[in-house]
Write a structure and sequence with these properties.
Layout (H helix, E strand, L loop, with lengths): L10 H13 L4 H13 L8 H8 L3 H14 L1 H6 L12 H12 L11 H10 L8 H20 L1
Helix pairs in contact: 1-2, 7-8
Protein name: Helix-turn-helix domain-containing protein
Organism: Telmatocola sphagniphila
């Protein structure tokens, strides 16, 4: 089958990929991408996709997408992957402080402890935010708990 995206690496790109592989520099995915790109180089080994799939135990689609990414988006994106945009936060620092303070205070009458759902409902009732999921409350409390444990152990 004729390949739609042909990998042609410059000498500098080949050296970069070989360095990544030799030093195991970066994540395992980055090393795997470097190995695949080197073997797919039309001016180098020029392995078939089937041979690459067999050698590196990956899917054919992985090889095809990596070829396409190299040609359309460039060497850096192909090697390092796309940067994910940061997740927007529902609570700002002041709102987080209010949630934490509420959690540290006494639970409502009839309850022995705060639950995440109870905290989420109370945060909305007090109009700290318009809406919030108990999962966001959990992440907020977990973030502060992990910071506290790190600072107390160090």
């Amino acid at each position: 089958m004729q390949k739609k995206y042909i990998v042609r690496l410059s000498v500098e790109e080949q050296a970069t990929l070989q360095e990544v592989i030799r030093r195991q520099k970066g994540s395992a995915m980055k090393v795997r991408r470097a190995q695949i790109l080197l073997k797919a180089d039309a001016d180098g080994p020029n392995w078939t996709d089937a041979r690459i799939v067999e050698a590196f135990e990956c899917r054919r689609q992985t090889v095809e997408m990596l070829r396409e990414r190299l040609v359309t988006e460039g060497f850096e994106v192909a090697l390092n992957g796309k940067k994910k945009p940061p997740r927007p936060t529902k609570l700002d620092g002041e709102q987080e402080a209010k949630v934490i303070a509420m959690r540290l205070g006494p639970p409502p009458a009839g309850y022995a402890n705060w639950t995440l759902k109870l905290l989420a409902d109370r945060v909305v009732a007090l109009e700290i935010v318009d809406s919030i999921s108990y999962e966001t409350v959990r992440r907020t409390l977990k973030k502060t708990a992990s910071r506290r444990s790190r600072s107390s152990t160090g």
